[in-house]
Amino acid sequence: MPPKKSTPWFTPEIKELAQEKRKAYLKYISEPSIEQRSEFRELQNRVNARIREIKEGYWESFTADMEHDIYGAQKKVWKLIRTTKKGVNELVINNKITIDEREKFFRELYRATSDDSEPKLDIREDIPISKEDIEKELSSLKNRKSPSSMAYSMKCSSTAAPN
């Protein structure tokens, strides 16, 4: 059984073009001259352009097939994602938002939520808290765990004051 084809766009035409390019390269390496180099570079550019055309054609047909086959598309997309080993190397630059607009947006965002999202703590100064109470609560905390501030303050206030 032949192995699965991981690059379906790699057609026999591309294989033949790649072999021609390799032969031209080996000829240039064995007899380095300006003519051999220019011949190799011309063939290299022509082969790369043809490979680019074939890849684009494959991608067009792949996406067109996916538009018509909604149910099979998910499997194809996930297979494509899993087999793609290169990361995305593009940088998206959006210059439509000015620095002043960004600053205004974040100032308004934080002004609206700065006091509203914080829970209000009822601090009662009439409850006596001894050093032993604090040591007891601190020793009951688990190592490398961060208790929520609300749960800890409620626990302390409920255990600190004797009734």
Describe this structure in words.
The chain is an all-alpha fold and 163 residues long. The chain folds into two domains: 72 residues, no CATH class; 62 residues, no CATH class. Helix 1 packs antiparallel against helix 2. It is elongated and about 95 Å long.
Strand fraction equals under 5%
Uncertain spans: none
H/E element order: HHHHHH
Q: What is the count of helical runs?
A: 6
How many structurally independent domains? 2
Radius of gyration: 34 Å
The overall average pLDDT, rounded, is: 75
Class by helix and strand content? mainly alpha
Shape: elongated
Q: Profile the largest sheet.
A: none
Approximately how much helix is present in the residues?
55-70%
* DSSP strand count: 0
Measure the end-to-end span. Answer: 82 Å
Show the helix and strand layout.
Blueprint: H1 12-30, H2 34-68, H3 70-83, H4 99-113, H5 131-140, H6 149-160
Helix pairs in contact: 1-2, 2-3
Can you tag this structure with a few keywords?
163 residues; 2 domains; elongated
Brief synopsis:
With 163 residues, the chain is mostly helical. It is built from six helices and no strands. 64% of the residues lie in helices and 0% in strands.
